[in-house]
Structures are given as structure tokens and as C-alpha cells.
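Model: You mentioned two targets. I'll fold them one after the other.
Researcher: Yes, keep them separate.
Model: Target one:
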Amino acid sequence: MAAEFYNRTRRSKSIPISLLRRGRLHDIPLYYLLRASDLAREGFENSGSYRFADHIYRNSASGTNAFGRWLDARLLALPAVRSFRSRFLAARDELARFLVARSGAALNVLSVPCGIPRELVEGAVAARRQGADLGRVVFHGLDLDPDLLQKAAAFAHENRLVDFETHLGDALAARNYPCNTDFVTSTGLAEFLDDGQLTILYQAVFAALRPGGLFVTSGMQRRRISEYLLKLAEITVHYRDAASLQALASQAGFCDVAVRHDALGIQCIVLARKATR
């Protein structure tokens, strides 16, 4: 069975031809204009890829020329894109708090799907700055793309996350998870899953966590401008509000579920804890 990359939602071979067939002639010049931006071009060519997400997380403008870099900076400054980045910041900061609170303990920390595990690297850096002892922490990355896992491992080692283990497999299959994890972060996948698939993901995380373990994840609410740009790139996402995310996490078995909105009110940040007994 072929692996299913849930974020690869684009179906047409050519976005301009698809726009022409749908009578959206006014969008064709915009499409070619936006391609000067590295962020927009990656979105057009590879749907919601790890490169697309990490470009936003890095928050560093780039493009094919001076105009492309200027345009990229403007896109990165859009409220919807800044909100997109906020889920990475939330995962990073929650991990840092967790590591500081459990300083010196033997812990397993997992990112799923890990992409480029920037939240693990930056969370560890922030925890060390606050004096946390991470000598007994093992970091894990689970992803369906073997080539990406090699890049993730290289990125981790280049950034002092030397105790980093990779796991190849589908995030919706519980057998692929390392056992006895203490902290799991998963951002950027929920938007590409329907409710049934998201419940399976939540259940897999729940099963992998030790009692008292913490799960940090996110969801996205609908906003007109962001939805327009996503549709232009043929990126299909599922929108959910805080109540829906809380209900799904509770159904998966989590006893303590808190959901908050980011400062822009687009991303929902979910903190779900497994009961201690």
C-alpha cells in the first residue's frame, strides 16, 4: 500500500490550467506574481509541505529576486501566517516549560510528524538557558518520509540535540510510536485530517504517553483571506473551533484538556494531559 501523505491535497497537475478551467482568470496573474515568493511557490508546488511550514517557523524572507524577498516578507507578515507560526511558538514554549519543571528526569519527548524538529531544538535551547538539566532526555521524531527523517536527524545533531531518535511510519498507526513518552507535540497535521482520522491520531498519542504525560497540538479556524490563499494553492484543510478540539481530545481519553486561542484568534492551541492513574 502506498504511503498517504495527508498534507498533499493538490490534485490538478497544473494550477493555472485548473484556474482557467474553473473560469478564475483573475487569479492566474496573481498566481504567477506570488511565485516570486519562496513561501508561496512551495505552497503551490508541494501543498502543505514541511518546507512550507518550516519557512514560516523560521520567519526569514526569501525569494527569486529582490521583489520576491519583499513579497515573501509581506506574506510572512500577514495575520494568518503569523498565526500559523504561533502554533510552533506555543509548542516550543510549552516544551521548554515542561523540561524546566522536570529538570534532571529521564524523559522521552516526541514530535509527530516531526518535519524539521525546530520546536524540539528551540525548546531545548530555551530550557537550557533557564538552567534545565537535559542529560537524561531522549528526543524522538516520527514521520512518514524517510528522506525527511534523515534531514531531521542532521538538523537535530547540528543544533546540539544529539540524543535524537527517528521513527519511520504513519502518525495514525499507534504501533509506530515510541513507548512511554512524556511529552508529545503535533502541529500542522490536524488540519489535513477529518474528525475520524484526528480521533485516531489523538488515540495513538494517548496510548504512547505515560500517565501524567502532556500532549500539545493545534487546530485552525476559518478566516477569509487565509482560506482564499489556501484554495488558490489547492491546499484543503479542515477547520475546527476550540469546543470541537476539546471534545475530540476528551473522547480520545484525555482527562485534562485546555484550549486557548492565539493572539490573532485563528489558531487553537490544545494542551491535553493523560491522567496520572
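Model: Target two:
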Amino acid sequence: MDVGAPPFSLTGKTALVTGGNVGLGQAIAVALAEAGADIVSVSRRGAPETAAKVGALGRRFANVEADLASARSEEIIARSEQTLGSIDILVNNAGIIRRADADQFSEEDWDAVIDVNLKAAFFLAQAAGKRMLAKGGGKIINVASMLSFQGGVRVASYTAAKSGLAGLTRLLANEWAARGVNVNAIAPGYMVTDNTTALREDSKRNADILARIPAGRWGEPSDLAGAAIFLASRASDYVHGAIIPVDGGWLAR
């Protein structure tokens, strides 16, 4: 790390953000670009809106189209390097959710969520981490969840994946902290995203959720900007294995 640079500056860095085309991923990508980073987004589709936002900030942008449920992580990292060079920051944001009662939950829905939310996140961290370890530094940020701490309802595979991701964050921090690679996580609270549409459209669930949030509102994707910049920058050089809730106070109640 360049100890002479402003502590929150990402100038000269390249960040790879999975699911950077929409929602939380787009907000994180734009925040990192605002701090000076060039951005690679990995998603199943193009990311024209994110590209425009990042470009307007004067930063470089590339999109790597890949299905995280089946793509090889080494290939994704290699393709990213071909576009914008060495990856300094990895944000494992991409995630999907399936809802069903536990006694009716299908193996197909279990595998789909675990493959994207947990398996892909670990092997991308492994592929990027090898390169970061070789050059003596890097930042990995996993996007966890309130269900990294709690059980939830009707989301068995999502709860398992996000709980597992919290554990992997700590494990990787234990292994890599002394070698210059920071591995931490952000745990968003209840945010306005496609994944929460069903909850927000259920009047009872929506009211119950809002009643528990001390801030009194659902979070917006842009609320993650500060935590993302902090964990991606040298300001967090002595932060390892942390899971930072950005939840409007949900866990405090």
C-alpha cells in the first residue's frame, strides 16, 4: 500500500465487482469509482448503466459476462486482467435468493443459491487471492447479510450461504492477514433491491420489518458506499475478518 496516499483514495486501483450491473453491486462499483478506482463488473448481462456512471467519473470500466453458477473463477479473473490489468480489490457481491418453506425446499433451489452465493464467492476469492498474495497485498470484500447472524424464514439456502460466507471471511482473514491481504465483509440490512421485492410487496412483512429498523426506513444501495470505500482503501489496513453491518440499526434492536 502507498502510505503517502490519502487514506480513502483508490486512485490507481482496479476493483472487480460481481453483480455490478444492478442494485447493491452497481452502487458499490460507482462508490469505488468515485474514490478513484477503475471497475470490472462481472454479470450474466451487460452493464450499460454502470458503465455510463463509472465513465462519467472519468474512470475506466469493463464488463465480463459470466454465469457465476457455472463459470470457472480462474477464467473470470484472467479475463478481467486482460481488460484492465491486475485486480487490487475484489467485491463478492452477486447473489440470488429462493423462497420456500423448509419442509418443501427443493434440492434445485438449494444448489442454485449455494453455487452463486457461496461456492463462486470462495473460488473467486481464491483465484484473486493467489495473485494478491503474490504481489503482497489486496482487498477482498464479501457481501454478507443479516442472515449471516440470524436464521430468517423460508430462505434455507440463502441463510446457509450467507452464514457460510461470514465464516469464510474469518477463515481467509486468519490465513492471509499476515501476508498483506485484507478479507472483510459488509452485511447489508433490509435494502431496496430486486431480492427484497417480495418482502416489500407483502404489507404485513413490510410493516414488521420497518417496525424493527431504528432508522425507520429500508436501506438504499448507496448507503453501502462508505463501508465499501473504507474496506477497499488503506484506511482499513489493520481491519481483518470484520463483518460490518449497514442495517439502520436492525441488529442493535
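Researcher: Noted. Anything on target two?
Model: DSSP finds eight helices and seven strands in the chain.
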